[in-house]
Amino acid sequence: MVFAFLFVALVTASSTAALTYREARNSVLHATQDTAVASFRDHVRGHPSLLPVDPGKLPTYLQELAALGKPRPWFVFAEYGTTVRVSSGSSPVSTVVTPALRERIKSRPYGAFQRVVKDGVPYLAVGMPVLLKSQPGMKLDSGLVLYAVLALDEEKMQIEALLTAARNGAVPGLAIALVPALLAARSVLRPVRELRRAALSMGSGKLDTRIAVRGRDELSDLARTFNETAAGLERSVTELREAEERARRFASDVSHELRTPLAGMLAVTEVLDEDAAGLDPDTARAVRLISTETGKLAVLVEDLMEISRFDARAAELNSDEVDVAETIRRTLANRHWTGRVGARLPDGIRARLDPRRFDVVMANLVGNALRHGGDPVAVTLRREAADDGSPLLAVEVTDGGPGIRPDVLPRVFDRFFKADAARTRSAGSGLGLAITAENVRLHGGTIHAANGPGGRGAVFTVTMPLDGGPRGRSREGE
User: Fold this and answer.
1) pTM for the complete prediction?
2) Is 177 domain-assigned?
3) pLDDT confidence tier of residue 10, bands split at 50, 70 and 90
4) Are residue 463 and residue 363 in the same domain, yes or no?
């Protein structure tokens, strides 16, 4: 605001100084110009000895004219035809008289003038043709043209003095304008700064932030509105948090209570599966359907309990230093995927991570590629470097399927999100990729979903720090 105030003051002072300077400059130049032109015209017309042209007498006549110059003596030059070039000084021809001035004089029998700058010095050049008096009311050009050249160095000094005075007058004005600018900034910007600090505080999660209200102007009304909005937002967020906490507690309690009856149901369905071959076909299909759905329900309950632990910030890492390639091979072997998945797993990459949670990450990504992607499915392990130079572990899982639609990509890690039939997770709990993302974040890493070249095949990339996640805890410390 101070800069804006000073800018306006600067523009105003500069404009005033520029207009004053321009008017004063024009006044000085026009006064000198009018005096010189009128004086030269009168002397040329009233001089009796110019015609007929006598080259021998012309220098004397020109020196007399030069001495009569106003406001100061001139340098006078005479041009007659193409041969006679005479002056009142030492040089017969003036470099200040331009071809443009000569052309203007041809069409103006009463003379013309021009301001010219030569070697940094301004000059006034006045051209006047000498006319013949042939008969009353008619004047003919004699062919003789006189030029008066006047140096405007004195006028230049006057104009420079005016410019200095205008500039020196503008500087104190700016200094004086700074005082009300500071006062205005203090009274206006202080509430704005307080509002900005309060907004930043609320943005960081401190919803109880309020602003002190002073006065009854527009800024105080804005502060009251901010306080009312903040109070309403705090109430709404508190209610939402309480509702979310109740929903999480409900899901956790229900999942926990379901585990015991589900364990009994799974034991019964295993027995029924063994005896299904001896039952009639319709009963056998029903038994197998019950067994399958009971297994899905058990997976859903376990996943819900895992998500509840993440939501309650109760999930922890049991970190250990492991050979990452060997850990991935073990994941593939335990699920009988070794022959179905291509693996590029260089040895020698060791990292601190939670083996159980890393196994869940790899199992969910590879299982997802096998169920919903297409051959070939591959796992690639490599070492990378972060922007700050710290070492990273990078694992990439790719498949040869149709890829993920662009509208689905931003939501693949959402809970219970289901895409179309080509990428659905309806065979599982709908929480697999969400749990995967939570486990990666728990390690201090990132996970990214994309499509391969040409949009063919899904590509899931996991990066983790080699030295363990920010919430890691070594087994040796347990």
Assistant:
1) 0.49
2) no
3) low
4) yes
d(C-alpha 118, C-alpha 112), whole Å: 19
Within this chain, do residues 403 and 295 fall inside the same structural domain, yes or no?
no
Angle formed by the axes of helices 2-46 and 58-67, nearest 10°? 130
What's the structural domain count of the chain?
3
Q: Which of 350, 359, 358, 362 is nearest to 321 (CA)?
A: 350
Q: Are 305 and 252 in contact (CB under 8 A)?
A: yes
How many residues make up the chain in this entry?
478
- Domain for residue 204, yes or no? no
Cα–Cα distance measured from residue 448 to residue 383, given in angstroms and rounded to the nearest whole number: 16
Domain assignment present for residue 185? The answer is no
The C-alpha angle with vertex 168 and arms to 166 and 173, in degrees rounded to 5, equals: 95
Same domain, 51 and 149: yes
Express each pLDDT in 450-471 by its tens digit: 998 877 889 999 999 988 655 4
What does pLDDT average to over the chain?
Answer: 79
Which CATH number covers residue 448?
3.30.565.10
Question: Can you give the pLDDT at residue 99?
Answer: 86
Distance CA 268, CA 300 (A): 19
Residue 336 counted as domain residue? yes
Neighbour tally for 205: CB within 10 Å: 8
Q: For position 276, which CATH number holds?
A: 1.10.287.130
Domain's final residue, options 285, 311, 337: 311
Tens-digit pLDDT profile for residues 323-365: 999 999 999 999 999 989 999 999 999 999 999 999 999 999 9
Which residues constitute the domain of residue 426? 320-477
As a whole number of angstroms, the distance between CA 252 and CA 308 comes to 6
Is there a single domain that holds both residue 253 and residue 362? no
Q: Residue 71, preceding bond cis, omega within 30 degrees?
A: yes
Q: What is the pLDDT of residues 161-187, one digit of tens each?
A: 777 776 676 666 666 666 666 666 666
> Which residues have CB under 8 Å from 215's CB, separation 6+?
none
CA angle in degrees (0–180, nearest 5) for 399-401-404: 95
Q: Which single residue is written with the structure tokens 């401190």?
A: 206
b/e map 409-418, b = 16+ CB within 10 Å: beebbeeeee
SS3 of 340, please?
A: coil
